[in-house]
């Protein structure tokens, strides 16, 4: 398998700690504010990994978790990579740990100018409350998802676009034309659009996404923005984009501030996202909090750090999806370990109470 730059970002470098990010006073304030959002107890194993089955859509890699509940069970939507490109699968669970009934739900369409090689549905509209079962919310009686697609074969090759999809049963999806193109945005996003995350606030849809700048190759920077719409057709980029910008030297998100997911908690809006540090070459899970869904203040705390050498997440712990169940927050993330051809990419989980 070709070793490609965005997924092989990082070899070496030390783990980030709160003490290395801020003064003790600032770190203490962050700890107090973030107490309800911490999930320090790692499961320590992959809950979903590549099948290693020749010809399977998720043969080689599993990535980008999105977890929710519907029909009295839990579902995990994820992207699988078969060596050609991304496609979208789904798995089921009763306990958020044992996942089964994996199947393809959104496949590439050979010959299509948008999805010939890739299509990854990263989110389905769900209730906003962080401390909820993560139930889906229908629009005109149907489920509504958001996807992104890279135009070229390979691992995230070319400037990706974002679109919507509709379903009656969570298995069969009708994809619409793209709604956001990188070339219509500012310079920070013209290299391509990454993971969309869709919520509805009142009568307005909010679509968060990360994007990369235009560069001739690696390395590049990624930051997070927002577009809104009342009719799902006309989208307006937020005037403060990018909402989550790369941090200053020494911060955990100096190169990437990516893959946002946004929830409501009381009068707060809580964004989980991941950062990549140019110094440590590690990707870790981070947090930003705001009084509105269009303005967030980043915390200095690392919510989920990489593990020690040999752990399932000794390279990256990134790409969040969070759900509440049985008195605990479950924080799913993409865990990457190993190097070169022995690198393993799958999905793991941490939660707010011990296992």
Automatic annotation (TrEMBL):
Residue intervals of the Glycosyl hydrolase family 32 N-terminal domain: 133-284
Keywords: Glycosidase, Hydrolase, Signal
Signal peptide: 1-27
Family the entry assigns: Belongs to the glycosyl hydrolase 32 family.
Organism listed in the record: Caulobacter hibisci
PANTHER family cross-referenced by the UniProt entry: ARABINANASE_LEVANSUCRASE_INVERTASE, PTHR35279
Name this polypeptide is given: Family 43 glycosylhydrolase
Source taxon at top rank: Bacteria
């Amino acid at each position: 398998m070709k070793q490609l730059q965005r997924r092989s970002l990082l070899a070496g470098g030390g783990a980030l700690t709160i003490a290395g990010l801020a003064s003790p006073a600032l770190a203490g304030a962050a700890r107090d504010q973030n107490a309800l959002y911490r999930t320090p107890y790692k499961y320590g194993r992959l809950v979903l990994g590549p099948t290693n089955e020749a010809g399977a859509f998720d043969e080689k890699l599993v990535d980008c978790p999105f977890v929710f509940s519907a029909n009295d069970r839990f579902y995990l939507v994820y992207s699988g990579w078969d060596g050609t490109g991304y496609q979208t699968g789904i798995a089921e669970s009763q306990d958020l740990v044992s996942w089964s009934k994996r199947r393809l739900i959104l496949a590439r369409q050979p010959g299509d100018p948008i999805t010939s090689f890739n299509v990854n549905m990263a989110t389905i509209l769900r209730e906003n409350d962080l401390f909820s079962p993560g139930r889906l919310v229908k629009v005109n009686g149907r489920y509504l998802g958001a996807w992104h697609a890279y135009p070229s074969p390979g691992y995230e090759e070319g400037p990706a676009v974002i679109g919507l999809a509709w379903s009656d049963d969570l298995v069969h999806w009708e994809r619409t034309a793209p709604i956001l193109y990188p070339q219509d945005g500012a310079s920070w996003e013209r290299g391509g659009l990454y993971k969309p995350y869709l919520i509805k606030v009142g009568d307005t849809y909010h679509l968060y996404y990360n994007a990369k700048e235009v560069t001739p190759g690696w390395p590049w920077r990624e930051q997070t923005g927002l577009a809104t719409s009342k009719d799902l057709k006309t989208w307006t980029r937020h005037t403060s984009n990018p909402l989550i910008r790369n941090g200053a030297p020494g911060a955990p998100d100096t190169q990437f501030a990516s893959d946002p997911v946004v929830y409501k908690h009381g009068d707060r809006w809580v964004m989980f996202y991941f950062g990549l540090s140019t110094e440590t070459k590690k990707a870790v899970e981070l947090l930003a909090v705001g009084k509105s869904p269009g303005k967030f203040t980043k915390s200095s705390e690392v919510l989920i750090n990489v593990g020690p050498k040999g752990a399932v997440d000794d390279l990256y712990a990134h790409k969040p999806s969070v759900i509440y169940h049985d008195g605990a927050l479950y924080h799913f993330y993409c865990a990457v370990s190993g190097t070169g051809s022995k690198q393993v990419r799958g999905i793991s989980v941490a939660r707010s109470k011990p296992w």
